[in-house]
C-alpha cells in the first residue's frame, strides 16, 4: 500500500475508535450540549422580552431576540463540544494508549487526525440538535438563500475545525483530563463576552475592545448576517482569518507536543 493509503486507513481506524468512545460514554457530550440549550431557553423565556426591549427600539419582541441570539448559541455549542476533545486527548496521553500506538506500525499523525475529525463531526451533530431546539421555540431564517446557507454551514465547520485543533493542543499540554477540562474553559467563556447576547455597541466603552477583538464576535456577526440578512461588512474576512490562523496555530502546536519524546 502507498503511504497515502496507509494514512487514510489508519486515520479512518482512529476516527472509528473515537466515535465508538463517544457513543459508549456520551455523558461528556451531553453535559457540554446541555449548557447552550439551557442558556438558549433561559435567555429566550426569562430574559427575552427585557433583552429585546433593551437592544431594539424599546418594544419587547421575543421573536426578534431569538433571531439575534441563535447564531451566538450555535457557535457557543461548538466551543463547548470541543472541550470534550481536550479531555479525550489528555485521557489517551495519560492512560498509556498513545505510548502503545507509538510502538505500532501505524501512521503516527492518524492518532490526532482521528480526534480532530471525530470532534468536528460531533460539533456538527451538536449544532444540528441545538438548531432543532431553536427552530422548535421559534427561530426562523426566511431570508437566507441557498448559497448563504452553504456559507453558514462552511463557516460553522471551519470554526469547529479551528477550535478542535486548539483543544487538542490543550489536551496534549495538560497533565490529566481534569486539567485539560479547566484549560479549555475559555472556549465556553469567550462567547459570553462577545456579541452573542447583546451588541458590542451596547457594552461599556472600556469593555468593547475585549468583546470585539476576539474570534467569536466576527464569526457570530458573519453567521448572523448569513442567516438573517444583516450587514456583515469586514466581519466575514475577520472570521475566516481567525479560523485559519487558529487552525494553523493549533495544528503546529499539537504536532510539536505530540512528537516530543515521552518523559
TrEMBL record:
Chief location: membrane
Membrane topology: Multi-pass membrane protein
Superkingdom of origin: Bacteria
Entry keyword annotation includes Oxidoreductase: no
Residue ranges of domain ABC transmembrane type-2 in the record: 27-261
Keywords (A to Z) from UniProt: Antibiotic resistance, Cell membrane, Membrane, Transmembrane, Transmembrane helix, Transport
Localization, UniProt: Cell membrane; Membrane
Membrane-spanning intervals of the chain: 25-46, 66-90, 111-137, 149-172, 184-207, 234-253
Family annotation (PANTHER family): NODULATION PROTEIN J
Annotated family: Belongs to the ABC-2 integral membrane protein family.
Protein name as annotated: Transport permease protein
Lineage: Bacteria, Bacillati, Actinomycetota, Actinomycetes, Kitasatosporales
Amino acid at each position: 500500500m502507498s503511504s497515502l493509503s496507509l494514512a487514510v486507513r489508519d486515520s479512518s481506524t482512529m476516527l472509528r475508535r473515537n466515535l465508538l468512545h463517544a457513543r459508549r460514554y456520551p455523558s461528556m457530550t451531553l453535559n457540554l450540549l446541555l449548557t447552550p440549550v439551557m442558556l438558549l431557553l433561559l435567555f429566550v423565556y426569562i430574559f427575552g422580552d427585557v433583552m429585546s426591549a433593551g437592544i431594539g427600539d424599546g418594544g419587547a419582541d421575543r421573536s426578534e431576540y431569538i433571531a439575534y441570539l441563535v447564531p451566538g448559541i450555535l457557535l457557543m455549542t461548538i466551543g463547548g463540544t470541543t472541550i470534550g476533545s481536550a479531555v479525550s486527548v489528555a485521557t489517551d496521553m495519560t492512560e498509556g494508549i498513545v505510548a502503545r500506538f507509538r510502538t505500532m506500525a501505524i501512521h503516527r499523525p492518524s492518532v490526532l487526525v482521528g480526534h480532530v475529525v471525530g470532534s468536528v463531526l460531533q460539533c456538527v451533530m451538536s449544532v444540528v440538535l441545538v438548531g432543532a431546539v431553536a427552530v422548535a421555540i421559534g427561530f426562523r431564517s426566511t431570508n437566507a438563500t441557498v448559497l448563504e446557507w452553504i456559507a453558514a454551514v462552511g463557516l460553522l465547520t471551519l470554526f469547529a475545525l479551528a477550535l478542535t485543533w486548539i483543544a487538542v493542543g490543550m489536551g496534549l499540554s495538560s497533565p490529566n483530563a481534569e486539567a485539560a477540562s479547566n484549560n479549555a474553559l475559555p472556549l465556553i467563556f469567550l462567547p459570553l463576552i462577545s456579541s452573542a447576547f447583546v451588541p458590542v455597541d451596547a457594552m461599556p466603552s472600556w469593555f468593547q475592545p475585549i468583546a470585539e477583538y476576539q474570534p467569536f464576535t466576527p464569526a457570530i456577526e458573519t453567521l448572523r448576517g448569513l442567516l438573517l440578512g444583516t450587514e456583515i461588512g469586514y466581519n466575514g474576512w475577520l472570521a475566516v482569518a481567525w479560523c485559519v490562523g487558529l487552525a494553523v496555530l493549533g495544528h503546529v502546536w499539537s504536532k510539536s507536543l505530540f512528537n516530543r519524546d515521552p518523559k
